[in-house]
Amino acid sequence: MCKNTINTSKNKKITQLFKIYSPDNGGGIANVMESIAEGFLHCRQEIIVCQDTWLKKSADDTYHGIPVRRSRQLFTIASTPVSLQFLLDVKKRTKDSGIVICHFPYPMIDLAILLGWYHGKLVVWWHCGIETYRRLVPFYRPLVMHTLKKADRILVSSKGNLMHSAMLRPFRGKCTVIPFSVSDGYLRRGRAYVKSRRDAEKREEKPEQKKKEISILFIGRLVWYKGCDVLIKAFARMKEKNCRLVLVGGGPLEQELKALAGRLAPGRVEFAGRISEEEKMGRLEACDFLVLPSVSQAEAFGLVQIEAMAFGKPVINTRLPGGVPYVSVHGVTGRTVRAGQVGELADAMDLLARDDKMRREYGQNAWERVNQEYTREVMAARYEKVFGEL
Hints:
By secondary structure, this protein is α/β, with parallel strands linked by helices. It has helices spanning 28-39, 84-93, 107-114, 137-150, 159-163, 184-203, 228-237, 254-264, 277-286, 303-309, 324-327, 342-354, 356-373, 376-389; strands at residues 13-17, 45-50, 59-63, 66-71, 75-77, 80-82, 97-104, 121-126, 153-156, 175-177, 214-219, 243-248, 269-273, 289-291, 315-318, 334-337. Helix 3 (107-114) packs across helix 4 (137-150). The longest helix is centred in the middle third of the chain and has 20 residues, at 184-203.
């Protein structure tokens, strides 16, 4: 793809930096890294990350055909792998790089930039602010500001993240919005599912006599900023009782949330745990709508929103000062409520649970929005433009 539009000779490459990568971690940042790698297969590439544990030595491997350097780490503090080898690898392995993409936040990258141990045009992918490092903010902020000053381009996933970030305000002139994309696998299966559902609706001569149980789905890590406690409380408060809540994912709050669900909605909440991508797509097909009840700016985009929208599913999200409410739009592809408001969330879930016509309308709008704005092809074209300018 890049061979026609980006001036990348054989001795130049695209290097991506972060703390961890697939298959060790399949989160949103890893998804973005994969989408960049897949979009520029004609370019020389390398991804430099840390090992998933300090017990392993540095290693070179490939993931989906892309070389990956996994640097040995010494220990982990505040979810941050500390690795001197990572610094040395960045210094050595970016010497032939045309573009270095730093996925923020990871303080070891900022340290490498402070030391000047990188080569190539510097692109900072600003995935979220530094709320994750609350206790370290006084020490970390100067490093971050230095990185932003050195950056040749800063990428953000939505206009909301750019508008509401005080740290990015002085650098808006070199910021570019590139929304995340849904994988081709989700798009293909979502298109097939939506087509089969439409065909079934056309063949149906009589409406169903028995009202089916409404399936409400959450997908994500069971951590504080996802707001799963708010979701369970809201679910228990719903007036419409012919519903089932399914939580997909694992995390440190799993047992606490199970206990809460057992007290408030016994027998009506399913914890599916960590599942494969194939199983996740099956859950999306089976649900009636998705809820993303996040309560913090640590949720900067909510990739699962566009995964659900690819299957024509409405989304209930929260009005956070970031990208989340810009992905699924209130009154168009779903509903948006104030973060942490149990009553508002319960009312929104009741509304969608009771109104089949609204669910179909929002779902159709969601499917169209994904296919217009959030495909890999659209995202790759946006990257091409940025990289070409650099």
